[in-house]
Amino acid sequence: MKHRMCNMRHLHWVTLLVAPVVALSCRSQVEGDFDFPNLVIEAQPPALVSVSFRLLVAETGEPEPYLQLQDFELLEDNAPISPTESQVQLVQRARAFKQEAVIMLDFSASVVRGDFDAVINAASRLATKLSETSAVAVYYFDGRVSPTQIATFSDPDPDLKIESFRDHDLIDSSTNLRGAITSGLTILDERQRNHEKIDGLDPNLYSGSLVIFTDGTHNAGETGGYPSERTTLNTVDRSPHALFTVGVEGEVNINFLETIGRDGFELVNPNGNLEDAFSRLSTTFANFANSFYTIAYCSPSRAGEHSFSIRIKERRNLRGEAILHFDADGFSAGCDESLIDKRFPPK
Hints:
By secondary structure, this protein is an alpha/beta fold. It is built from 9 helices and 18 strands. Helix 3 packs parallel to helix 8 (274-289) and helix 5 packs parallel to helix 6 (229-238).
């Protein structure tokens, strides 16, 4: 049995809409073959309880995506929760989580003077696939200190913005790979802080991802604004965001790229199909993005502390359970689906 501190939020509404207030720590118990990072339980009068989490296979750390409501067994105080009486919902992921991704593309000399059309085609398709689950911003990097933005998070068609760079002229032949990595993570850090400050978003409900494509190694130096390898690795180690890398075999430092791409790494033969590699990476990314879940229901409890258990029904001989606690003080009649829609507005 594993114990961890999760985040408990006791919410209330003052007028038509206010931000949730009062965040308290809570202890959870995790048992079995699955892990439940990013655990958040919320209790909101009149009687709404919701739990958000990621689901991973404990032994491998691999995401467990695409579960449906029937794949969970839900209990309150060790008694099964009635799906109909409690109006249980598996909330659409986009309504509960803020998922954002940064794509960093290597536009150094070897890429721009090589089969640049193949890079543009593959990157465009990757942006389209990532946009199915996340808001996507796209940048390119070369030997300069800072990357250049191609598409913002609010652009509805980042693939078209990438296509517009098909006739891109080489600006700097060098490769600031480390700067691309640290800059991408900094962008995600700033986005997360803004969502927390402006939207009141719980940090556990933010999912940031960085995707790096390169065909070379860092050769821009490590002074004058260029990060060292140690600084880059330390930044990656401290980062809560997911990292994915695609490298073209030849000049790349495979060990470095594989270390950076801790959530997904693809190595492409120089004569291989780059689009196939990007397609495999997009599948890996989709599995990651679809391993986030939120379950909401109307609790029958009316006061005091209660337990809520999520059991994963057997999958490939794997089972798991997370047990959390919530405070039902102030709970009463009046909870229905409209309250779930109010807490998690449809997109």
